[in-house]
Amino acid sequence: MTGDDSRNGKEVADAQTADDEAASGDSVLTLEAVRQSFGDVSVLEGVSLDVRAESVTCLLGPNGSGKSTLLSIAAGLRTPDEGTVTGEIDAARDVGYLPQRPAFRPHFTVAETIGFYGSLVPTPIDEAATLERVGLAAVADRRVEHLSGGMVRLLGLAQATVGSPPVVVLDEPASGLDPQIRHRIADVIADLAADGAAVLMATHDLDAAERIADQVRILDDGEFVAGGSPSEIQSETAAESLGGAIDALIDREDAIGVRAGTGDRR
Ligand SMILES: Nc1ncnc2c1ncn2[C@@H]1O[C@H](COP(=O)(O)OP(=O)(O)OP(=O)(O)O)[C@@H](O)[C@H]1O
């Protein structure tokens, strides 16, 4: 972990990997020197990341900094232009994934939806316990098109954890939701990690990151510019909050150009 701008991306990644080893469970998924471009827009410029059991790793960074792209690569949904994704698991099969905008087949109830996803995994699942864990047991018979936005996200979280995958990848699991539901979702995520899962999530919810993240990675301009526990990042940037640390680390003017796809690297 570092706020030292003189270190390059590889040095930052190596230092962060050492920090991770001290901080959490076994490595289950490793991304090494991952690069991804879309046309002439370079989105990831050699990103390395270790995803560990029993821990929550939060990806933070401006809109358009490449978080979703990185998550889709970690989840085995996209093969990077360069770099490797390795682990004890098969990323395409053993990774639960919650997309940014989950959508479910209309007319199915909540229970039928989870039952459907349960039928896709090798071992039978406890549907009631799966819904209980995310707090949706009371609406098990409600049709998915009648759920609130927060409930849809909780159902997405339940779907991502069906079959207890060793890695759970969550793309902004609580964006646009009220503080109470955001808090509940963060609690569910922390419980998943406590039960052994390696959770990798992108979020703009800095309160949640501060509360539940074991490790944070800040992505900007295609590279990690900092990583470590929330308190380590704060103390290295002399910031009073994670938001303050991000402000110290990221050049907002440049980030606006990057977001618009007009930055030098894009
Ligand atoms: N399939 C694609 N084709 C072309 N460009 C893409 C594609 N997917 C993503 N991009 C571009 O890659 C960049 C990174 O997008 P990405 O969704 O990974 O960012 P993000 O950090 O998740 O953003 P946000 O916080 O807004 O969700 C953006 O400039 C986006 O327009």
Automatic annotation (TrEMBL):
Keyword ATP-binding: yes
Region listing for Disordered, in residue ranges: 1-24
Keyword Glycosyltransferase appears in the UniProt entry: no
Pfam family, one: ABC_tran
Domain of life the protein comes from: Archaea
Residue ranges constituting the ABC transporter domain according to the UniProt record: 29-246
Bias type Basic and acidic residues, positions: 1-13
Any GO molecular function: ATP binding
Keywords attached to this entry: ATP-binding, Nucleotide-binding, Transport
Protein name: ABC transporter related
Species whose genome carries this gene: Halorhabdus utahensis (strain DSM 12940 / JCM 11049 / AX-2)
